[in-house]
Amino acid sequence: MIHIGPLDLEKKAAVVAVILENPLETSKKAAEMGADLLEIRLDLLGIKDLEIAAETIRKIKSETKLPVILTNRSNTEGGKWEGKEAERIRLLTNLLSLEAGPDAVDIELSAGREARDQIIKAAKTCGKTVIISSHNFLKTPAFQEMKTTFEEAFLAGADIVKLAVMPHSMRDVLNLLRATLDAREAGGTVCAIAMGKLGKHTRVIAPFYGSVLTYASVEGTVPAAPGQFQVDEVKKIMELLE
After folding, report:
1. Which of 135, 200, 201, 235 is catalytic?
2. Phi/psi at 7 (nearest 5 deg)?
3. Distance (Å, rounded) from C-alpha 224 to C-alpha 222?
4. Contact at 8 Å (CB) between 72 and 44?
5. Contact indicator for 94, 115 with CB cutoff of 8 Å
6. What are the φ and ψ backbone dihedral angles of 14, each rounded to 5 degrees?
7. φ/ψ of residue 123, rounded to 5
8. 235 classed as catalytic
9. Tell me, what's the pLDDT at 73?
10. Is the pLDDT of residue 168 over 90?
11. Of 184, 185, 182, 206, whose CA–CA distance to 195 is shortest?
12. Which entry of 61, 128, 147, 162 is annotated as an active-site residue?
């Protein structure tokens, strides 16, 4: 069974609120809106200092009682980190070891193998969940290529593989959902997202094909990725479809 903190993802897909500004205030609002998880985007928050990051996470967890995914997204995968790669990895690694630290960490499949392995080892040592992610903001890779991405990420040590793509046709969307269902039926725990207007519905539909996480924005903030619904919208639509 795959958990993030106390949250059992085998029972029900979780709605993840992306926290990208005013972290404490936005996190509390996300909790009020019904979020199951919070993704703390250090790169978008502009947090580089270990002590500030640690205190931010501690306060958020204390105030909301929600599990936290820690993300410090690289520029190559749509992030806004403005520093050296070694500093990005070091910040993630150090935060994972804290008692009141994050419950899960997101690291890109495209990160260098040494850096990625460092994050994975730190997370596993501390009993934290590892999300290995891959983002393509230009297109949807071929069906077999998406299946290979899932397989490579699991081989690298992922507990959950996140795949976000940009569709140019409904066939692209269908191929993503097929790859997601295949991965799930093979025993993998995955998160699949088709971005933009064409893929917007996958944020509520993909969980029915095996995706265990869906990312959403918080009222009053700019969506972190094209096509995101607000937390309460996702919750409401998914409840109607259940």
Report:
1. 135
2. -80, 120
3. 6
4. no
5. no
6. -105, 140
7. -65, -45
8. no
9. 94
10. yes
11. 206
12. 162
- Per DSSP, the three-state class of 51 is helix
Contact 71, 39 (CB under 8 A): yes
Tokens of 30: 């996300």
| Structural contact between residues 74 and 108, judged by C-beta atoms closer than 8 angstroms | yes
Tell me the C-alpha distance between 29 and 59, whole Å: 14
Q: At what angle do helices 143-156 and 170-185 cross, to 10 degrees?
A: 40
Q: Which two tokens stand for residue 209?
A: 């094909």
Amino acid in the structure at residue 197: K
Structural domain boundaries of the chain? 3-237
3-237: CATH number: 3.20.20.70
d(CA 177, CA 207): 10
* Token pair belonging to 103: 């419950």
Q: Distance between CA atoms of 99 and 107, rounded to whole angstroms? A: 20
**pLDDT of the residue at 26:** 96
- C-alpha–C-alpha distance, residues 2 and 48, integer Å: 29
- Per-residue pLDDT tens digits for 81-106: 988 999 999 999 999 999 889 999 99
Phi, psi (rounded to 5 degrees) for 61: -65, -40
| Under 8 Å between Cβ of 5 and 38 | no
**Is 99 in a helix, a strand, or coil?**
coil
pLDDT value, residue 93: 97
Is 168 one of the catalytic residues?
Answer: no
CA angle, corner 15, sides to 12 and 21, nearest 5? 160
Instruction: Give the chain's length.
Output: 242
User: Model-level pTM?
Assistant: 0.95
Residue 117: both structure tokens together: 């392995």
